Amino acid sequence: MIDPRRLRVLRALADHGTVTAAGRALHLTPSAVSQQLAALESEVGHALLRRHGRRVSLTAAGELLVGHANAVAAELERAGATLAAFAAGTTGRVEVGSFASAITQVVAPALAVLRSRAPDVALRVRDVEGHASVPLLLDGEIDLAITEGYRLHADDRRLTRFPLYTEPFDVVLPAAHRLAGKAEVDLADLADDDWVATLPGNPVRDVVELACSQAGFAPRIPHTSDDFRAIGALVRAGAGVALVPRNALRCDPAGDGPAGDGALRGVPVRGAAPLRRVVAAVRRGSAEHPLVALVRDALVEVCRPVAGRG
């Protein structure tokens, strides 16, 4: 194994031409330079220098080895530059956990912003339901969790959170539903309908059941899915009605459903609609880490128009 510190001595001898000058450049005595060179020649099994009085020149083996020494030195310089950039927060990786609609609405656009603004910051995205992302965050498996605000305990000092956007829940109806032409819908008017909802334990399910309870009934839920596209497909097929966050299916409250196909109607709830407050959370103490701050700022920036749609 070649000692890279001795390669530095060889480079200095090639650059300066004498043992004394090389030692002065390296802050070594001439004796130490000679010892390092002898050890290097022993390691490689070749003579590396020719002596011409006080001056030295490289042998053919020395020329070859200096070429490699220059390559090693360049890689070490690059390593130093990379570490300096890492320390400055301009390069590195951030792991983000988010539920699917927030990935579509804000995480993917934020990733695009980062690719143009900070191309050396790698954003790794994991699709995970909001209620499951916080344990991953606390376990150190992700660096930032996007979740529903009411899933975070206000007094949890392990976390720092910042708001992203708030969106209302809309009633989603098949195009042929008796209330599909209404500008607003009372949830109580849907007490006798079948419902399509997320699975128990999903925070959206909690919102739906609470909203229906406040309207005076318990929803009858024969169909369940945690995939909002699947919920939309079931509603479109006439399996029931649903209550979903507005951005989840991107339903236009005054017009067509997803992709503008006209098969669904997203209708605002009359009165105080349930709200989903979406936040980003990080482990306390990491909020001002340069990489985390870059991602946070990109998320907040792309959230402004999303929040406006709510």
Automatic annotation (TrEMBL):
| Family as reported in the entry's similarity comment | Belongs to the LysR transcriptional regulatory family.
What keywords are assigned to this protein? DNA-binding, Transcription, Transcription regulation
Q: Report the InterPro entries cross-referenced here.
A: LysR_HTH_N (IPR000847), LysR_subst-bd (IPR005119), WH-like_DNA-bd_sf (IPR036388), WH_DNA-bd_sf (IPR036390)
Q: Which domain of life is it from?
A: Bacteria
Is this entry keyworded DNA-binding? yes
**What sequence ranges are listed for the domain HTH lysR-type?**
2-59
Name the PROSITE patterns for this protein: HTH_LYSR
Entry keyword annotation includes Methyltransferase: no
Q: Which residues form the signal peptide?
A: none
Name under which the protein is recorded: LysR family transcriptional regulator
